[in-house]
Here is the input.
Amino acid sequence: MTDFVVKPLDATTWLDFARLVEKHNGVWGGCWCMAFHAEGVGRTKTAAQNRAEKEVRVREGRAHAALVYDGSACVGWCQFGPTDELPRIKRRRAYREGVGELPDWRITCFFVDKEYRGRGVASVALEGALREIARRGGGSVESFPEAVEGRAVSGSFLHNATVLMFERHGFERTRPLGKHHWLMTKVVRKASTSPAEA
Here is the structure.
């Protein structure tokens, strides 16, 4: 099995992220992983605008993701961030019906290079995101994966991965948000640092 490495998305890894997005034509019609940020995407926005807005966010530290590498190539990611960094979500009406206090963190999407799908990249990305959340102080985390048991679903449409994968990483089903999607939550403890690491 490939030894994947995870790095945070930041100014030093931006070009690696950009190469993967460009390889896949901007990802989901030119989204550039902007759909869940306040700026959003839509018919009035071009892929070039989305790219420029994403780069500004990354360079200013206002966009977070765990990037998975195979050697020097970025092959996938898991986007995460504070809820005010990622305010847009799908199934908003169902979400609002039972929402109390907003969590500290939100995991909104995954993307995996088409040549690497089915090799565990999304799981590695999720693990990396949770480590980074712990490093940044931990707290409550939510996401909205899809339950796929008993039905065929193309991996290319699972932008927020599967319930089973999140359960393997310690998330619990909180409540359904539709026929197949669940709100799942977990509390991540702050990472402890040894004197040598401080």
In short: Helices lie at 14-23, 47-59, 92-97, 121-135, 163-168. The first strand starts at residue 5 and ends at 8.
